Amino acid sequence: MNQFSNDRLQDQQPGVEAEMTPTPDFRPFYPGSGRLEGKTAIITGGDSGIGRAAAVLFAREGANVAILYLSEDEIEDAEKTLELIEAEGGAGIAIRGDVGNKKFCNDAVAQVIERFGRVDILVNNAAEQHAQQDFENVSEDQIEATFRTNIFGQMFMVQAVLPHLQEGAAIVATTSVTAYRGQDLLIDYSATKGAILSFTRALAHKLASRGIRVNAVAPGPIWTPLIPASFPPEKVESFGDSSTMGRAGQPNEVAPSILFLACADSSFMAGHVLHPDGGAPTAD
């Protein structure tokens, strides 16, 4: 059984990792082997959670990493992630803004090109979710905000990076187990994750002829800042208990799947989804 604390529940999205109890595990399991040597990656929502774990792992594998994050409230997380990237020998840049704003996406990619001269990998990971017991009480503003961040943001980022991607580039999306089995507290969020799944498959077909691979990961219950920022106390305390493994996963248990899809190890994969979900068959 998990022992997650609900005494530090957060009232903002996407949440702050520095305030979580316990701290999520983000450190890579193994030494690097140069699988991303010379590459530049952009990771949205890269300051914390799954994004931080992927950023650190990418740096360990030789990449320079640009992390995009939402607000000033997360600056501590962003600065910490940059330190972790640099400790792994990579160069990093943190860019603050909202991926739901197309202009920001264009400007962010321009900053990455100015700094590193190239983009090879896009990890579309930023997301928000808002638990609501009664669907009839989900506001129009909440629906629009969730779709704008979760799916519009992914589309805007792809449009921004495409002029810079060369043959061999990779796009990795973060969808969710909720795209497959739903979540009754997160109906609008689940819908966006289903849209990401379809977007991934369609985009993979569109870009295959250009030598650009598009795939996705569909995590199950993972201990990230979204959890204490989204769920009521009783859900936080028992988060992940209903998975087949009887626990929630950690961000560093998702990052290796993202790395696999971002590097040449997955050179014959397009439009596929990996499922680091703990065998989670029921709603948490």
UniProtKB/TrEMBL annotation:
Taxonomic placement: Bacteria, Pseudomonadati, Pseudomonadota, Alphaproteobacteria, Rhodobacterales
Molecular function per GO: oxidoreductase activity, acting on CH-OH group of donors
Ranges of biased composition (kind: Polar residues): 1-13
Region feature Disordered, mapped onto this chain: 1-31
Family per record: Belongs to the short-chain dehydrogenases/reductases (SDR) family.
Name of this protein: SDR family oxidoreductase
Entry annotated with the keyword Ribonucleoprotein: no
Keywords: Oxidoreductase
PROSITE patterns for the chain: ADH_SHORT
Signal peptide bounds: none
PANTHER family per record: NADPH-DEPENDENT ALDEHYDE REDUCTASE 1, CHLOROPLASTIC, NADPH-DEPENDENT ALDEHYDE REDUCTASE-LIKE PROTEIN, CHLOROPLASTIC-RELATED
Lineage: superkingdom: Bacteria
